[in-house]
Design brief:
The chain has eleven helices and ten strands. It is of the alpha/beta class and 254 residues long. The chain has two domains: 114 residues, D-Maltodextrin-Binding Protein, domain 2 (3-Layer(aba) Sandwich); 107 residues, Periplasmic binding protein-like II (D-Maltodextrin-Binding Protein, domain 2, 3-Layer(aba) Sandwich), CATH 3.40.190. It has a five-stranded mixed β-sheet, with helices on both faces. The protein is globular, with a radius of gyration of 20 Å.
């Protein structure tokens, strides 16, 4: 019996008449943390495909993928990293645009956002000692935050207060934990019941930063390209778009 189990004979038998399940491995930008869980559950309920997502900064994933990281799909928080993978012939087809990210200021200290006139210039106030953003060297939301502060004319005043998260999710963690007073983070991460109870947010006007157009690619090394394409098609389809909207993303025109 032990030998039989070692050879795999003790695995549960697949239910007759049902296709075997396969897995799609997704390298996802950190702003997708909540949305992908919802998308994956809905998608897997309709297809014999499981979705295994890992989250991080888009630039870090880009570097890992160049070194052969084992993923099937890359969902970036901007279009530039997927485009560079296409240029390097590392993908199965071109990039696809799936969402438009939105930047917000979030705080757990209700008093900071209590007055009606709060805006980016308020981040220069003395009562705000630390402002968390994603690292702009490899995180699109970090670059958007810096651009927004420059556009508002307060970057020089706020720059000494900045603390950097490895990605936008970690920047939010800094604001939640009190390591920062305010986080400039993704609406998709704070647009949830838990965060609604934990603090307040104000959206940063879209004209203050370059459009966060998010794109993805299927990797040429994908283990099951057909399964990866099925998840991409679901993401870009009507139900996928509706889920993304509910989680705070805008979506490009189909």
């Amino acid at each position: 019996m032990l030998l039989a189990c070692a050879l795999g004979a003790c695995r549960p038998a697949r239910e007759p008449g049902k296709p075997p399940r396969v897995e799609v491995r997704v390298a996802a930008a950190a702003d997708l943390n909540v949305a992908i869980a919802d998308l994956s559950a809905r998608f897997s309920a309709r297809h014999p495909i499981d979705v295994a997502a890992s989250y991080g900064s888009s630039g870090t994933f880009f570097a890992q993928l160049l070194n052969g990281a084992p993923f099937d799909i890359f969902l970036s928080a901007d279009v530039e990293y997927p485009r560079r993978l296409v240029e390097r012939h590392a993908t199965d087809g071109g990039e696809f645009r799936y969402a438009i990210g939105r930047l917000v200021a979030w705080t757990s200290r209700d008093a900071l956002f209590a007055r009606e006139g709060f805006d980016l210039a308020s981040l220069a106030d003395r009562q705000i000692a630390r402002v968390a953003i994603a690292n702009p060297e490899h995180a699109p939301y970090g670059r958007a935050a810096v651009a927004a502060l420059r556009s508002a004319g307060v970057y020089d005043a706020v720059q000494p207060k900045l603390v950097y998260g490895e990605n936008v999710a970690q920047a939010l963690q800094f604001a939640q934990s009190g390591a920062a007073d305010v986080g400039l983070v993704a609406l998709s991460l704070v647009n949830s019941p838990n965060l609604e109870r934990a603090g307040r947010w104000r959206e940063v006007p879209a004209e203050r930063y370059p459009r966060l157009e998010q794109a993805g690619v299927i990797l040429r090394s994908a283990r099951d390209a057909a399964a990866a394409r099925a998840f991409r098609d679901y993401l870009l389809g009507p139900e996928g778009r509706d889920v993304l909207k509910r989680h705070g993303f805008a979506v490009p025109e189909p």
